[in-house]
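Entry 14. Structure prediction run on the chain below.
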Amino acid sequence: MHVKLWPLRLREAGSVSDRRRSSCIQSAVQAGSTRPGTYTYSSINFREYELKKLFAAVLTLLFSTVLFAGTFVNTTGSDDNTAISGYDPVAFYSEKKAVFGKPEFAVAHMGAKWVFASLENLKLFQDNPDKYMPAWGGQCAWCVSENCISPKKLSGSFDIIEGKLYLYAHGNNSRDGARTGFWQSGGGVSRRIAEGNSYWADIEKKLVNDQLVQRNASNYRKTQFD
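Output returned:
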């Protein structure tokens, strides 16, 4: 195997890794050179190996940070930061109904894991995430308009108002109770949206800073409609 040895300043008194590299380079040189700067060597390129390990560690750290840092996206009921109770955000637009995503079609965005019913939907989301991101991070629209977040999972009830997706948690007395309240109480939908917008900046900040903590799979509030 031919490997290109990285330039290395050898020291007589150095670290253990330096001395090991020095020994390896000497062995490579003794084995004979086939062309300038290239050596026949049966071991691995230590510098390349270390860089690969470092790169893998950085990717792991970044992925962990992306998924487990505080996020404003609705991840209630999940232990791995799955967004909006596992629903496909694109399907609300394309199929006009709530459709669960599949784990094999997943992407990290805004600190959460989004799952999709198909690769096509995943690509649509990646191409234009702002188009498909639900209002207020997918938090229950009724709750945000009341200056809170819901401890319950999303019900699949939704509205698309002026191109924006609004999602709702399970109601107390019915599956669609939160959506009904959004439309029929508090001055109606226009006022609800205005009030939600006025509250959202503070709610978002508290979620990102973990001052508001979303419930996970073991402590979210289950209902008879789950």
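Confidence is low (pLDDT under 50) at residues 1-44, 58-67.
Filed with the rest of this week's runs.
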